[in-house]
Amino acid sequence: MNADGPASGASSVLKARDETTCQVRDVLNRVGDKWTLAVVNELGAGPRRFNELRRTVPGISQRMLTATLRVLERDGLVTRSVYAEVPPRVDYELTPLGRTLLERVWGLIDWAVEHHDDIEGARGRYDARRAPDGFQRNLLK
Fold first, then answer.
1. Cα–Cα dist 41/6, whole Å
2. Within 32-61, where are the H helices?
3. How far apart are CA 138 and CA 141, in angstroms?
4. Helix, strand, or coil (residue 88)
């Protein structure tokens, strides 16, 4: 078989598709983690100090907020500005790239808020069908 034949072409198309899939998965893993969208959404209102973010993102620990902000900064979605004041002031702000992400995810955030009760209801119905007899009744008590 000729190395330049149709099989070779299909192989290169599949390789390119697999590479693109990996790149997409890499980005979606970043923005789809537990805290990224909440932090990006809060920064959408403007620059925030660390403790402001911590107060406005319910449930996030200091450690997780620090880690999330570092990764967002590394990915070019957030800037960190340090001001020589006493006490030192550090602000976090979305970059233009971060703003493009926010514009895209607002629709997803709106959808999640709008359909949260629908999803919870579907989960409850599913769990009720899948639970052994008596198990679900005990959960509801």
1. 47
2. 36-43, 50-56
3. 5
4. coil
